[in-house]
C-alpha cells in the first residue's frame, strides 16, 4: 500500500509538473510581457486555486471533466476517477505558484537586453530561449519546485475528481488519510515521514537556488 | 559628390508615445551624425525608431535607398528590428550578464562554425582579447563598452547607433575611447548616429550635428557652423558657451603655462596644452566671463587685453549682450547698468579683458 501510493504519487506529480512547467512558462511570460484585453481577469482566474478551498476547485474540475462537458464531448476522453484526473487536479492547484514566480523572474529581466537581442538578429522565440529564459531560470526553477511540491501534496481536489481507489488513484496524501481512518498507525507514520522529507528537500533546494554561490551562476541584473 | 556626402541614411519620422511626440528629419552620408540636446528631447526615441524597437506613427526610414520603415497605411513597410542589420550600442551597454565577453560578441553570429573565432577577431580589434572569458560584471565600464561595440560590429551593420556611449566613463577614458571610436567610424565607412548631450563629444566625433529639443529639430549642420550660428539661442543655451573660435597654435610654453593661438584676427592666450605650432584648435569662451573696460586697463593679471569696437547691443532678459568686433566677433554679457555707465553702444571703442583660465580648449 505504501509503495503503491508512493509510486502513484510520483507519476501524478511528474505529469502535473510537466503541465505546470509548460503552462506556467507561457502564462508567466504573458503576464510579464504581453498587454492584452482581459489580462487581469485571466491572472485572477489562474491565481484563484491559491485561495479557493480545494473542494471548490475539485468541483469545477469535476464539472469540466465529467460527462456532458464540452471538454469530454470535443476530445472524447474520460478522465474522471483515473490517475490522469489526479494529475490534472494537482497541476491546476500547483500552477499559480509557478506562474507567480515565473512572472516575477521574467519581468525582472532588463527589457534592454531583449531589445539588444532583437537588434542582434534574434527572433522573439530565439531571444526567449537565449536571453530571457537563462536570466530568469532561477525564479522559474524555484516556482517549478514549489508548484511540484504543492502538486505532490494535493488532497482535496484530487479526492473530488479521482477518488481514492487504492492502487489506482490513491496518492500518498489520500493514503495517509485512509491509513489514519483505518487505524494503520505504522503506515501513516512512514508515509508522513516520507512526505515531510520530500517537502523538506524541495524547500532546501529552493533556498539553494535563491541564494547562489558566487560566480558559479552569474547573477541576474537588478533592474 | 564624395561617398561621405552621398545620402546613406534618411530619417523622417513622427513618433507618438505616451503623450510625447517626436518629429525628426535628417539625412546622413557615410559619416558621424550627432543627435544633440537635453534629456527628454527625443534622442533615444529617434535611435529606437531607427533600430526598429519603436514604431513611428508615420514617416520614412531608409538605408542606401532601401526602406526599413515607410508610411503607416496599408502599403506600410516595417522591417523588424532583427532584420535591419543595425549595430546598436545601448547606453547601459546591455551586455548579456549570463554570457562571457566572447559569447556576447558571438551572439549575433549565431550558429556559424567559426562564430567564436570571428568574435575573437572583433574583441582583438577593440583590444579586449585578454578579457574574452570574463563575464560582464567582471569588467570595468570602459571594458564593457568595448565589448558592446565589438558585439555591434560583429553584426556587420549597415548603420551604427550609439546611445550616450561615454556617460558612464571617467574623463581620461572618455578621451581615449573617443579617439578609437573615431578611427573605427572612419574605417567602417557606414553612417554612425551618436546620441549625446555633451558638446565636446559632438566636436570630437561628429561630422554633422542635429540639435533636438522637445521632440523637434532646432537646427542642423556642421558642428562648428551650428554652434557659431548667431542667434541660435537654443544652441548656445544648451551648450552654455556663446563664443567658439577656430584657429591655429602660434606658440606653446609649458614653463609659462600658456598656449598662444591665432583665431583668425583674434589672438588669445589660453591655458597650456601640449600642442605644436600650427595645430588646429577650437577655443570656447563664455560671454559672462569677459570684462569690458572703457579705457585701456593696466596692471592686470589677466593675459588678454583686446581692443575692439561694439557692433551691437541687445537686451537678453536681465542681462545685455554686446557683440564686439576684435578681428572676430566676440559675444559679451554685461549688466544693463554697465551698458549705461560705460556708454556701450554701436561704434564705441572698448577693451575686453579675458583671463587665460576663462578660455578653454575644446577637443
Précis, in short:
The N and C termini of chain A lie far apart (51 Å). Chain A has helices at residues 2-33, 39-51, 54-65, 70-75, 83-107, 111-119, 124-152, 156-162, 172-181, 185-210.
Shape-level CATH architecture of chain A: Orthogonal Bundle
Number of domains of chain A: 1
Low-confidence runs of chain A (pLDDT<50, min 5 residues)? 216-223
**What is the N-to-C order of secondary-structure elements of chain A (H for helix, E for strand)?**
HHHHHHHHHH
Gyration radius of chain B, to the nearest Å? 24 Å
Query: What is the top-level CATH class of the largest domain in chain B?
Result: Alpha Beta
CATH topology of the largest domain in chain B: Rossmann fold
Which quaternary structure do these chains form?
A: heterodimer
Intertermini distance of chain A: 51 Å
Tell me the fraction of residues in β-strands of chain B, as a range.
35-45%
Order of helices and strands of chain B: EEEHEEEEHHHEHEHEEHHEEEEEEEEHEE
Give the biggest beta sheet of chain B. 6 strands, mixed
- How much helix is in the residues of chain A? over 70%
Which overall shape of chain A is indicated by the principal axes computed on the Cα atoms? globular
Give descriptors for this structure:
heterodimer; A: about 220 residues; mainly alpha; MetI-like fold; 10 helices; B: about 375 residues; alpha+beta; Rossmann fold; OB fold (Dihydrolipoamide Acetyltransferase, E2P); five-stranded antiparallel beta sheet; 9 helices; globular
Amino acid at each position: 500500500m505504501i509503495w503503491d501510493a508512493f509510486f502513484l504519487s510520483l507519476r501524478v506529480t511528474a505529469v502535473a509538473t510537466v503541465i505546470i512547467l509548460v503552462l506556467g512558462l507561457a502564462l508567466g511570460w504573458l503576464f510579464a510581457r504581453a498587454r492584452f484585453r482581459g489580462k487581469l481577469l485571466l491572472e485572477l482566474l489562474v491565481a484563484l486555486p491559491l485561495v479557493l478551498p480545494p473542494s471548490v476547485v475539485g468541483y469545477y474540475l469535476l464539472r469540466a471533466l465529467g460527462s456532458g462537458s464540452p471538454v469530454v464531448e470535443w476530445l472524447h476522453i474520460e478522465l474522471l476517477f483515473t490517475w490522469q484526473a489526479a494529475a490534472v487536479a494537482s497541476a491546476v492547484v500547483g500552477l499559480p505558484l509557478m506562474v507567480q514566480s515565473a512572472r516575477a523572474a521574467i519581468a525582472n529581466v532588463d527589457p534592454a537586453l531583449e531589445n539588444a537581442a532583437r537588434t542582434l538578429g534574434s527572433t522573439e522565440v530565439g531571444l526567449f530561449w537565449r536571453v530571457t529564459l537563462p536570466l530568469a531560470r532561477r525564479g522559474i526553477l524555484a516556482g517549478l519546485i514549489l508548484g511540484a511540491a504543492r502538486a505532490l501534496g494535493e488532497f482535496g481536489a484530487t479526492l473530488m475528481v479521482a477518488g481514492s481507489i487504492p492502487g489506482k488513484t490513491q496518492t500518498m496524501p489520500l493514503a495517509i488519510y485512509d491509513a489514519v481512518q483505518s487505524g494503520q498507525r505504522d503506515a501513516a507514520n512512514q508515509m508522513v515521514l516520507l512526505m515531510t522529507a520530500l517537502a523538506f528537500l524541495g524547500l532546501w533546494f529552493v533556498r539553494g537556488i535563491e541564494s547562489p554561490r558566487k560566480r558559479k551562476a552569474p547573477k541576474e541584473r537588478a533592474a | 559628390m564624395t561617398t561621405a556626402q552621398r545620402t546613406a541614411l534618411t530619417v523622417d519620422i513622427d513618433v507618438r508615445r505616451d503623450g510625447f511626440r517626436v518629429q525628426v528629419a535628417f539625412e546622413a552620408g557615410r559619416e558621424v551624425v550627432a543627435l544633440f540636446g537635453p534629456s527628454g528631447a527625443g534622442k533615444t526615441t529617434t535611435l529606437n525608431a531607427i533600430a526598429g524597437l519603436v514604431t513611428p506613427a508615420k514617416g520614412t526610414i531608409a538605408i542606401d535607398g532601401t526602406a526599413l520603415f515607410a508610411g503607416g497605411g496599408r502599403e506600410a513597410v516595417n522591417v523588424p528590428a532583427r532584420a535591419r542589420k543595425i549595430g546598436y550600442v545601448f547606453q547601459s551597454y546591455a551586455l548579456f550578464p549570463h554570457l562571457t565577453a566572447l559569447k556576447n560578441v558571438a551572439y549575433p553570429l549565431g550558429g556559424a562554425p567559426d562564430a567564436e573565432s570571428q568574435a575573437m577577431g572583433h574583441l582583438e580589434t577593440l583590444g579586449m582579447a585578454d578579457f574574452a572569458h570574463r563575464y560582464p560584471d567582471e569588467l570595468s565600464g570602459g571594458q564593457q563598452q568595448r565589448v558592446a561595440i565589438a558585439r555591434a560590429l560583429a553584426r556587420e551593420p549597415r548603420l551604427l547607433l550609439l546611445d550616450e556611449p561615454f556617460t558612464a566613463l571617467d574623463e581620461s577614458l572618455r578621451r581615449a575611447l573617443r579617439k578609437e571610436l573615431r578611427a573605427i567610424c572612419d574605417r567602417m565607412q557606414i553612417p554612425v548616429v551618436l546620441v549625446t548631450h555633451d558638446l565636446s563629444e559632438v566636436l570630437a566625433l561628429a561630422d554633422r550635428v542635429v540639435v533636438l529639443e522637445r521632440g523637434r529639430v532646432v537646427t542642423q549642420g556642421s558642428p562648428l557652423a551650428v554652434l557659431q550660428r548667431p542667434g541660435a539661442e537654443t544652441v548656445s543655451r544648451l551648450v552654455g558657451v556663446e563664443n567658439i573660435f577656430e584657429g591655429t597654435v602660434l606658440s606653446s610654453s609649458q614653463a609659462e603655462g600658456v598656449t598662444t593661438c591665432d583665431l583668425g584676427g583674434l589672438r588669445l592666450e589660453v591655458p597650456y596644452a601640449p600642442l605644436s605650432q600650427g595645430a588646429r584648435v577650437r577655443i570656447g569662451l563664455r560671454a559672462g566671463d569677459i570684462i569690458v573696460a572703457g579705457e585701456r586697463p593696466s596692471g592686470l593679471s589677466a593675459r588678454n587685453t583686446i581692443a575692439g569696437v561694439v557692433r551691437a547691443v541687445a537686451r537678453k532678459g536681465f542681462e545685455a549682450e554686446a557683440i564686439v568686433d576684435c578681428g572676430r566677433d566676440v559675444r559679451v554679457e554685461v549688466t544693463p547698468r554697465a551698458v549705461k555707465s560705460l556708454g556701450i553702444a554701436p561704434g564705441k571703442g572698448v577693451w575686453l579683458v579675458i583671463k587665460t583660465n576663462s578660455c578653454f580648449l575644446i577637443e
